[in-house]
Amino acid sequence: MKKYIAEFIGTCVLVVFGCGTAMLVGCGSEYGCGYILTALAFGLAIVAMAYSIGNISGCHVNPAVSLSMLVTGKMTVKDFVGYVVAQVLGATFGSAILALIWNLGDVTDMTSAYGSNSTAGVGGSVIAALLVEIVLTFVFVLAIHGVTSKTENTAVTGIVIGLTLTFVHILGIGLTGTSVNPARSFGPALIAAFSGNTDPIKELWIFIVGPLVGGALAGICYKALASAKESK
Questions:
Q1: How far apart are CA 203 and CA 119, in angstroms?
Q2: Pick from 224, 184, 186, 232: which is nearest to 205 by CA?
Q3: Mean pLDDT value across residues 179-196
Q4: How many alpha carbons lie under 13 Å from residue 130 in its C-beta half-sphere?
Q5: Model's pTM, two decimal places?
Q6: HEC per residue, 106-163
Q7: In the chain, what are the helix, strand and coil shares in percent, each to the nearest 5?
């Protein structure tokens, strides 16, 4: 149960600081440094959580990461289900916190989507959005497998994962808002729908399927590469 609580907290923090920053500073080119600040907020949130809860749950805070660990045999089906439930609940709770802050504080800017993902940056193309999310998630999760494969990397694991998340956000924000995390997409879309904006919920499936496919492919690829290295 402690692992699930840790995943709940970690995903909540990721959404509050990542999506909250996106809501506050904006992500379009017209907002200048807001684009980079949002990428850094997501990455730094992962760094903070990796060194906070990493020794408890591994700090997946992402169903795509958990699925990849399941594919590579690094976690059980029972834990996978528990992790995903905790992650989705954490993301939803984090989005609810943002909604409460923005409404109580009467913050009027950037509120309607609560940091939800969208296909607007790719002209509404479902195929392009799926491809973006698959590629970004593949790179992100592959890096996670690589850096966590050696115990001697323990001291820098959180930094590497956080920087990689920042890295994929730099490309992805302008295209899809960068999900690479179904829970991170679910929470804001659900709260946005409750607030009267149903657009994010209509496209939500893209940001669930894309990251899960990318995460699974990363697991399969890393497992194959690792096996090939061992056989030499």
A1: 8
A2: 186
A3: 96
A4: 8
A5: 0.93
A6: CCCCCCCCCCCCCCHHHCCCHHHHHHHHHHHHHHHHHHHHHHHCCHHHHHHHHHHHHH
A7: 80, 0, 20
